[in-house]
Amino acid sequence: MKNVLLLGCAFPAELRYFARGVARVGARVFGVDHVPQSHLPDIARESLSGYLQVASLFDEDAAVAAVRAWAGSTTFDRVESLWEGTVLVAARLREVFGAPGMTYEQVVRFRDKDKMKQAVSDAGLRTPRHQRASGAKQCFEAAERIGFPLCLKPIAGAGSENTFRCDIQSDLESALGRVGHVGEFNVEEFIDGEEFTYDTISIDGRVVYENMSWYRPRPLIGRSVEWISPQTVSLRDVDRPDLAAGKELGAGVLQALGHQTGFTHMEWYRKSDGEAVFGEIAARPPGAHTVDTMNFASDIDLFTAWAEAAVYGTWSLQFERLYNCAIIFKRAQGQGHIRRIEGLDRILASFGEHIPCIDLLPIGAHRRDWVKTLLSDGYVFVRHPDLDTTAELADRVGTELQMYAGM
Ligand SMILES: Nc1ncnc2c1ncn2[C@@H]1O[C@H](COP(=O)(O)OP(=O)(O)OP(=O)(O)O)[C@@H](O)[C@H]1O
Ligand SMILES: [Mg+2]
Asked: DSSP readout, 137-166?
C-alpha cells in the first residue's frame, strides 16, 4: 500500500475531496494542517490514516521539523499539496523524504511571479512586458519604460487585491497612494482582452486532462466591483479555434517550467487580434470550485482521477464533455447578516434542471468578505450543452437572484 502525505486538508473546502480521492484509489493518506483533528471536515477525517496538527503551515522550517519527528520511520511515496499556500513546503518535504515529484527550485518558478515570467519569456513565449520596482520612484521609471496603460501589482499578491490598471501618470500616482509608496511591485504592460484559464492534470509531463475556463468579466473587474456576480465558465468545446493559441501557449509553459505530475492552473489573455498572452500559472488545481465546474461539465470525479494519476501514474477515467458549466458568485446588498434571498424560486421553476448545485449562505449567516474571498455570499452552478444558453442562464442568476443583508 502506498503512503501519501497531504499538506493541507481542512481549508479550502475542496481539499477534503482530494483526501478522499487518495483513500478511494487504495492508498493510505496522512494529513497535515494547523487545525485540531476534531475540527477537520468529516470527509477528510474519515479518509485519513494519520493526522498531524502543526502550529503553522507557513513556518516552513518548523513544519518540516514537526513532520519529520512525527513520521519517524514511516516513508512516503508521494508528498502532495493541492493548495497554493503549501506547494513549497510540500516540495521541501519531498526532498526530505526522497519522494518523487518536483523539486523546491522547480516549484519556486510556479510561485514567484517574476521568476515564472522570466522562465516563460526565456522560452520565447509571450508574456506582458514587465519590470520589478521597489518604491514609488522606481515604479515611475518602470512606467516610462513599459508605457501606459499598465498594471501595477504587489510582487506577492493574490486575489487581485491591490492590483490596479493605470491609464495615465496620475492613475499611477493615486494607485501608489492607495497601496503605499514602499514595497515591491511589478509594473506590467496592460493586456487588453478576454481572460481564460488552461488547467491540466499531467503524468510525468504528459497532459492527460485539460480544461479551459472563461472568466466573465475579467477578474480585475469582477474582483473590484461589488455589485457584479463574477462567473467562471468551464467550456465544453476546448478545441475551439479561437482557444488554440492559448492551448499552445499552455503546452509551451508546462514544458518551459518542467512540470511533471499533478494539476496545473494557468491564466492567459486573448487579445482582440487573437494573440495569446501568458498571465500566470500555479502547480495546483484552480480554486473557487472550478474543479467542481470541471466535474459537472462531464459528470466525473476529478478528485479521484487526480489521485490515481498522482499515486500510480495511471489514468483510467473515460469522459465526454457534455456541458458548459458556469459558477456564479453572489454578493448580498447591505452589510451584516443575510436577511432575505429573492428570485431563487422563480429561477428554479424556470430552469432548475440546468442547476446541478446551489450553496448560498443561509438566512441569519454573516456575510463573507467579498474582497478576500471570491466565494462571496455563496454560489450557484449552471450547466447546458450550448454555450450561449449557459451564459444567458448564468446572467439570469446574476441579475434575478438577489441576496439582502442587514445589521
Ligand atoms: N498585465 C496585465 N494586463 C491586464 N490585466 C492584468 C494584468 N495583470 C493582471 N491583470 C488583471 O488582474 C488580475 C489579477 O492578476 P494576477 O492573476 O496576476 O494576480 P493574482 O493577485 O494572483 O490574482 P488571483 O490570485 O486572483 O489569480 C488578472 O486576472 C487580470 O484581470
Ligand atoms: Mg490570477
From this structure: HHHHHHHHHH-SSEEEEETT--TTTT-EEE
Arithmetic mean of pLDDT over the chain: 96
Ligand 1 nearest atom to the CA of residue 190, by list position: 3
Q: What's the pLDDT tens digit per position in 44-66? A: 999 999 999 999 999 999 999 99
CB of residue 158 inside a 6 A radius of ligand 1: yes
Cell numbers for 172, please give them.
499611477
Within 10 A of 176 (CB to CB), how many other CB atoms are there?
A: 20
User: Which atom, in ligand 1's list, is nearest to the CA of 193?
Assistant: 4
Packing angle of the helix pair 15-24, 302-312 (nearest 10 deg)? 60
Residue 196 CB less than 6 A away from ligand 1: no
Point out the ligand nearest to the CA of residue 196.
1
pTM exceeds cut of 0.85: yes
Residue 287 CA, ligand 2 centroid: distance in Å: 11
Rounded to the nearest angstrom, the distance between the alpha carbon of 92 and the centre of ligand 2 is: 24
Residue nearest to atom 29 of ligand 1 (CA): 219
Ligand 1 within 6 A of CB of 159: yes
Q: How far apart, in Å, are the Cα atoms of 275 and each of 178, 194, 236, 240, 270?
A: 32, 11, 22, 15, 6
Half-sphere exposure of 343 (CA within 13 A, CB side): 13
Q: In b/e form, how buried is each residue of 116-133, taking b as 16+ CB within 10 angstroms?
A: bbebbbeeebbbbebbeb
